Amino acid sequence: MKAFAYVNATNEKDAVAALKTDGIALPLAGGQDLLARMKDYISQPDRVVNIKNALDATITATPDGGLKIGAAVRIVDLAENAQVAKLYPSLVAAAGEVGTPQIRNSGTVGGNINQRPRCWYFRNEEFNCFKKGGDRCFAPAGENQFHAIFGSGPTHIVHPSSLAVPAVAYGAKFRLVGPNGERIVDAAEYFTMPTMQNVKTENVLAADEVFTHVILPAPGNVKHGHYEVRFKASHDWPIAFATVVLAMNGGTIGSARVVMGAVAPVPWRAQAAERALAGKRIDEATAVEAATAALEGARPMSQNNYKVQVAKTAVKRAILQAGGIKTV
Ligand SMILES: Cc1cc2nc3c(=O)[nH]c(=O)nc-3n(C[C@H](O)[C@H](O)[C@H](O)COP(=O)(O)OP(=O)(O)OC[C@H]3O[C@@H](n4cnc5c(N)ncnc54)[C@H](O)[C@@H]3O)c2cc1C
Which of 14, 171, 269, 287 has a CB 3.0–4.6 Å from the CB of 9, allowing a cystine? Predict the structure, then answer.
């Protein structure tokens, strides 16, 4: 590992100040992603800023009936929080399925949402891909079975955070703090699709900003579903998954949010599926129609066509789960 300076920040302001440097400074939370990248020479910061003691590690109620979740909250504490389970069960479902108990014990909400892609070309120092300043994405002509089926490059990573998908589905906002104070960004606007101008990053967070909170609005009269598909139910990231949040109008769906994970470089909102759900009752036919609409426009590569069916099934089962209809 390359030598680095270490700063133990004790509040937001110190954390932001410590991130300002002529070299590369990176925040350290649970360290599971960052330290692995440093050991593999994928990230080589000059300064590591420990933010665990600087950021909020609590979950508190907001005046409008929602919740505010500090970035330093551990994933296990999110997964076991009764208030979150009551208001946002899909977020708790996602948190409870992240990795293993050890990963959930040390991983934080902020670290999970800001973790870098799991693409095996990005994670291997031998492959100088776009994300590391190289001249190509190796996925289209290479081993792409776990890569994106939506988006047209230039990189084909899938967004890695399980928590980001329900955050977008619940209409969360993220609080960020930088040298000029705080800003609040819609979760749906936080994650960015790759472009040649913006190929090395995955979100709008600036190098001298920290991510401090997830702010969830009051859920209202909604039904929720979350369904993840993994190989052999292992501890690894899901192959594809979906969160649906259905705002009910009596017995029918008033409006819907359908968001898929592990299919695109960002949590992928399926607006065609949302339109297909509006005004309908929750039943098998509606779920199939919406799931089919969700995968319209998918552009699988040579080895990941199977993901289209897997994602379709995840959407369908998440909708049926929201309706309390047994799926398997
Ligand atoms: C075997 C395995 C299985 C896994 N399965 C899943 C899974 O199913 N779903 C899933 O979502 N994840 C999964 N993970 C990933 C794991 O959950 C994340 O690596 C972990 O949550 C990261 O949190 P951390 O606090 O350790 O982050 P860190 O490693 O400390 O930070 C991660 C990144 O975010 C940045 N960062 C951290 N906090 C902040 C902040 N507050 N503001 C700005 N930047 C910040 C860091 O600089 C770093 O680049 C898995 C990991 C392993 C090893």
Answer: 14
Read off the pTM. Answer: 0.98
Return the structure tokens found at 251. 């017995």
111 lines ligand 1 (CB under 6 A): yes
Question: Given its phi and psi angles, is residue 188 left (phi above 0), alpha (psi -120 to 50 degrees) or beta?
Answer: alpha
Dump pLDDT digits (tens) for 305-314. Answer: 999 999 999 9
Distance, in Å, from the CA atom of 155 to the CA atom of 298, rounded to the nearest integer, reads 15
Assigned token pair, 45? 């910061």
Distance CA 295, CA 190 (A): 23
Short-list 185, 187, 177, CA closest to 212:
177
* β-strands 47-50, 25-28 pairing: parallel
Low-confidence ranges of the chain (pLDDT < 50): none
Q: Supply the residue whose CA is at minimum distance from atom 14 of ligand 1.
A: 99
Cα–Cα distance, 223 to 312 (Å, whole number) = 19
| The pair of three-digit structure tokens given for residue 147, joined into one six-digit string | 């890569």
For 246, the token pair is 């259905």
Q: SS3 for 147?
A: coil
Amino acid at 15: A
Written as one string, the DSSP assignment of 157-223 is: -----TTHHHHHHTT-EEEEEETTEEEEEEHHHHB----STT-S-SBS--TT-EEEEEEEPP--SEE
Q: Is 203 in the pocket of ligand 1 (CB under 6 A)?
A: no
Is 30 touching ligand 1 by the criterion CB < 6 Å?
yes
Longest dimension (CA), the chain: 61
193 contacts 266 by C-beta, under 8 angstroms: yes
Burial degree of 17 (CB within 10 A; 0-12, 13-18, 19+): middle
How does pLDDT run across 256-301, given as a tens digit for each residue?
A: 999 999 999 999 999 999 999 999 999 999 999 999 999 999 999 9
The distance from CA 324 to its chain's CA centroid, rounded to whole angstroms, is: 25
